[in-house]
Amino acid sequence: MKKNTITIQYKSLDLSEVSEEDKLLIHKAEEIRDKAYAVYSDFYVGASLLLDNGEIIMGNNQENIAFPSSLCAERVAIFYCKANYPDSKIRKIAITAKSIKEAYHEVVTPCGSCRQVISEYERNQGSPIEIILKGEQEVLIFNSIKDLLPLSFESLVLRK
Ligand code: THU
After folding, report:
1. Is the pTM of this model over 0.90?
2. CA–CA separation, 125 vs 108, rounded Å?
3. Among candidates 37, 13, 43, 42, which has minimal Cα distance to 132?
4. Which of 41, 49, 96, 99 to mutate to test the pocket of ligand 1 (most atoms within 8 A of CB)?
Protein backbone atom coordinates (compact mmCIF):
# COMPACT_ATOMS: atom_id res chain seq x y z
CA MET A 1 0.00 0.00 0.00
CA LYS A 2 1.12 3.54 -0.76
CA LYS A 3 -0.18 6.60 1.03
CA ASN A 4 -0.62 9.64 -1.20
CA THR A 5 -1.16 13.29 -0.43
CA ILE A 6 -2.91 15.93 -2.47
CA THR A 7 -1.78 19.48 -1.84
CA ILE A 8 -3.99 22.44 -2.60
CA GLN A 9 -2.54 25.89 -3.00
CA TYR A 10 -4.50 29.11 -2.83
CA LYS A 11 -3.86 32.74 -2.07
CA SER A 12 -5.54 34.71 0.71
CA LEU A 13 -5.52 38.46 0.29
CA ASP A 14 -6.67 41.52 2.16
CA LEU A 15 -9.13 43.57 0.17
CA SER A 16 -6.43 46.20 -0.29
CA GLU A 17 -4.23 43.65 -2.12
CA VAL A 18 -6.84 42.72 -4.73
CA SER A 19 -6.12 43.80 -8.35
CA GLU A 20 -8.34 46.40 -10.03
CA GLU A 21 -9.61 43.76 -12.48
CA ASP A 22 -10.64 41.45 -9.63
CA LYS A 23 -12.17 44.32 -7.64
CA LEU A 24 -14.46 45.10 -10.56
CA LEU A 25 -15.45 41.44 -10.91
CA ILE A 26 -16.17 41.22 -7.18
CA HIS A 27 -18.18 44.42 -7.33
CA LYS A 28 -20.31 42.94 -10.13
CA ALA A 29 -20.86 39.76 -8.08
CA GLU A 30 -21.99 41.83 -5.09
CA GLU A 31 -24.29 43.92 -7.25
CA ILE A 32 -26.08 40.87 -8.69
CA ARG A 33 -26.03 39.02 -5.33
CA ASP A 34 -28.40 41.58 -3.88
CA LYS A 35 -30.94 40.86 -6.65
CA ALA A 36 -31.06 37.08 -5.94
CA TYR A 37 -34.39 35.31 -5.59
CA ALA A 38 -33.60 33.71 -2.23
CA VAL A 39 -36.97 33.92 -0.48
CA TYR A 40 -36.65 30.51 1.22
CA SER A 41 -33.07 30.56 2.49
CA ASP A 42 -32.52 34.32 2.77
CA PHE A 43 -29.02 33.44 1.64
CA TYR A 44 -28.03 35.66 -1.26
CA VAL A 45 -25.24 34.56 -3.59
CA GLY A 46 -23.74 36.38 -6.57
CA ALA A 47 -21.32 35.12 -9.21
CA SER A 48 -19.61 37.02 -12.00
CA LEU A 49 -17.54 35.62 -14.84
CA LEU A 50 -14.81 37.36 -16.79
CA LEU A 51 -14.63 36.04 -20.34
CA ASP A 52 -11.65 36.12 -22.67
CA ASN A 53 -13.48 38.71 -24.80
CA GLY A 54 -13.57 41.05 -21.78
CA GLU A 55 -17.31 40.57 -21.23
CA ILE A 56 -18.57 40.16 -17.65
CA ILE A 57 -21.52 37.77 -17.11
CA MET A 58 -23.40 37.76 -13.81
CA GLY A 59 -25.81 35.40 -12.06
CA ASN A 60 -27.46 34.93 -8.68
CA ASN A 61 -29.25 32.09 -6.93
CA GLN A 62 -32.80 31.43 -8.03
CA GLU A 63 -34.92 29.46 -5.58
CA ASN A 64 -38.24 27.68 -5.95
CA ILE A 65 -40.88 26.35 -3.60
CA ALA A 66 -40.05 22.94 -5.08
CA PHE A 67 -36.61 23.22 -3.47
CA PRO A 68 -34.65 20.93 -5.84
CA SER A 69 -35.75 23.13 -8.75
CA SER A 70 -33.60 25.96 -7.37
CA LEU A 71 -30.23 26.79 -8.89
CA CYS A 72 -27.03 28.23 -7.44
CA ALA A 73 -25.66 31.59 -8.57
CA GLU A 74 -22.59 30.00 -10.15
CA ARG A 75 -24.58 27.73 -12.45
CA VAL A 76 -27.08 30.47 -13.34
CA ALA A 77 -24.13 32.59 -14.53
CA ILE A 78 -22.23 29.75 -16.21
CA PHE A 79 -25.19 28.26 -18.08
CA TYR A 80 -26.24 31.72 -19.31
CA CYS A 81 -22.66 32.29 -20.42
CA LYS A 82 -22.36 28.99 -22.26
CA ALA A 83 -25.80 29.42 -23.86
CA ASN A 84 -24.91 32.85 -25.24
CA TYR A 85 -21.14 32.70 -25.68
CA PRO A 86 -20.41 29.02 -26.32
CA ASP A 87 -17.01 29.71 -27.85
CA SER A 88 -15.73 32.14 -25.22
CA LYS A 89 -13.35 30.99 -22.56
CA ILE A 90 -14.06 31.81 -18.91
CA ARG A 91 -10.97 33.37 -17.35
CA LYS A 92 -12.27 33.98 -13.83
CA ILE A 93 -15.30 33.56 -11.59
CA ALA A 94 -15.92 35.70 -8.50
CA ILE A 95 -18.39 34.47 -5.87
CA THR A 96 -19.82 36.26 -2.83
CA ALA A 97 -22.68 35.67 -0.39
CA LYS A 98 -24.78 37.50 2.17
CA SER A 99 -27.38 36.28 4.64
CA ILE A 100 -30.18 38.55 5.76
CA LYS A 101 -31.08 36.33 8.73
CA GLU A 102 -27.76 36.76 10.47
CA ALA A 103 -24.38 38.29 9.78
CA TYR A 104 -22.39 36.20 7.35
CA HIS A 105 -18.77 37.24 7.05
CA GLU A 106 -17.20 34.13 5.55
CA VAL A 107 -16.28 33.34 1.99
CA VAL A 108 -18.80 31.03 0.34
CA THR A 109 -17.25 28.04 -1.40
CA PRO A 110 -19.13 26.56 -4.37
CA CYS A 111 -21.20 23.41 -3.84
CA GLY A 112 -20.19 20.09 -5.36
CA SER A 113 -22.56 20.39 -8.33
CA CYS A 114 -21.18 23.82 -9.25
CA ARG A 115 -17.62 22.53 -8.94
CA GLN A 116 -18.48 19.66 -11.29
CA VAL A 117 -19.97 22.06 -13.86
CA ILE A 118 -17.01 24.46 -13.68
CA SER A 119 -14.68 21.47 -13.98
CA GLU A 120 -16.18 20.28 -17.28
CA TYR A 121 -16.05 23.72 -18.90
CA GLU A 122 -12.50 24.24 -17.68
CA ARG A 123 -11.47 20.94 -19.26
CA ASN A 124 -13.33 21.77 -22.50
CA GLN A 125 -11.65 25.14 -22.89
CA GLY A 126 -8.18 23.84 -22.07
CA SER A 127 -7.25 26.70 -19.77
CA PRO A 128 -7.76 27.22 -16.04
CA ILE A 129 -10.66 29.15 -14.56
CA GLU A 130 -9.50 31.24 -11.62
CA ILE A 131 -11.89 31.08 -8.64
CA ILE A 132 -12.16 34.23 -6.52
CA LEU A 133 -14.04 33.85 -3.23
CA LYS A 134 -14.91 37.10 -1.49
CA GLY A 135 -15.63 37.24 2.26
CA GLU A 136 -16.09 40.37 4.31
CA GLN A 137 -12.44 40.68 5.33
CA GLU A 138 -10.54 38.44 2.97
CA VAL A 139 -10.41 37.15 -0.57
CA LEU A 140 -9.29 33.63 -1.47
CA ILE A 141 -7.99 32.92 -4.96
CA PHE A 142 -7.66 29.43 -6.46
CA ASN A 143 -5.85 29.09 -9.79
CA SER A 144 -8.08 26.34 -11.09
CA ILE A 145 -11.17 24.32 -10.21
CA LYS A 146 -8.77 21.39 -9.92
CA ASP A 147 -7.82 22.81 -6.52
CA LEU A 148 -11.45 22.68 -5.35
CA LEU A 149 -12.35 19.41 -7.05
CA PRO A 150 -9.32 17.15 -7.23
CA LEU A 151 -9.76 13.70 -8.78
CA SER A 152 -12.92 14.87 -10.54
CA PHE A 153 -15.10 12.56 -12.61
CA GLU A 154 -14.21 12.96 -16.25
CA SER A 155 -14.67 9.62 -17.89
CA LEU A 156 -13.57 9.62 -21.52
CA VAL A 157 -15.64 6.46 -21.99
CA LEU A 158 -18.79 8.60 -22.12
CA ARG A 159 -17.33 10.88 -24.79
CA LYS A 160 -18.09 9.97 -28.38
N1 THU B 1 -25.99 28.71 -3.09
C2 THU B 1 -25.40 29.27 -4.19
O3 THU B 1 -26.05 29.97 -4.97
N4 THU B 1 -24.09 29.03 -4.38
C5 THU B 1 -23.28 28.36 -3.51
O6 THU B 1 -22.10 28.23 -3.76
C7 THU B 1 -23.83 27.77 -2.30
C8 THU B 1 -25.31 27.84 -2.16
C9 THU B 1 -27.42 28.99 -2.86
C10 THU B 1 -28.35 27.85 -3.08
C11 THU B 1 -29.53 28.26 -2.22
O12 THU B 1 -30.34 29.14 -2.96
C13 THU B 1 -28.90 29.05 -1.08
O14 THU B 1 -27.59 29.40 -1.52
C15 THU B 1 -28.80 28.28 0.23
O16 THU B 1 -28.16 27.08 0.06
Report:
1. yes
2. 25
3. 13
4. 41
